Amino acid sequence: MMTRSTLLTSTLIAAITPTSLHARTWTSAEGVTIEANYISSTDTSVTVQRTSDLRRFTFEISKLSAKDQAWLTEQRSKTDSPDSSYSTQSPSGIPSKIQAIIDERGKLLLEDDFNREDPDGEEDLGENWISNSKSRAQGDKQCDLVDGTMQFTLSPKANHAISLVHNTSEPYQEAVSWTRVKFPSGQSFKIAFNDKQYKPVHAGHINGVTVRNRSVNIDDEKNGRFSAEAKAMRNDDSKKKERAELTAKFSKQFPVNVKGDKWFELVTHHQGETLTVYIDGKEVGSYTSSGFAHETKRQLAFAPSKDATVDHTMLWKIEPK
Asked: What is the pTM of this model?
């Protein structure tokens, strides 16, 4: 099978229907083989599903044999054909103006439809996903792959909300994320963009978007809640009010109507110092603050307050003009 060093951590945008999968033997340039179905490909990467355990992997086309590269070129030409069954699928909740940006300058860093299995009782989630269950919930399984979704269930042992992070293959500044998600009434779901290598802030928190049934909060956490200034006041009770005021200064709330236990599509767009949020294709809020322009975001993270289900997620790095 392919060595770990050749595997990338993202899956690709060209989602192929199950009826068009191709079972074949793939060979690396070094002669290492893997039996897998063809799932999708871009100009630089290919995603396959291993036949032995149905796990998906993505690797660089340049590291494949010449024969496999030629085969992929043929499949890509079929994708472009009007009568081909190899039709690419774009999420319906991405506004046309954002889709145009993706089409022109987008580089896909992550796509995951969670269509795989994980061990009972363990969090072996694949695709470079790491949760805080071991450190925050005494090892209880809080993230579970079920029927092609990622399901979150807060453990009664947990002393912190669930956090599930994906470390991207490269840092990003301007970016678009798309996630299909639902959560129960009275709860919340947060998508965050972190940089663990940026030490001035607490735990690498840069900014985030929190969705509740009636509101969306867009937070510049680099300058606000998790900033070096807030971090210094964290354990000083006399600074509690001052810290709350700092958090509020770099947070903006917008009204929404998100129904409990109903699927919705959440889109975020980082563009310079502005972070804009869309739900089901409609803009719900836009906030400008310097922290959103952080150049080296390195993670995408999910943080439900208690329970949630994610069906599919994608993240594009938007290349400079």
From this structure: 0.73
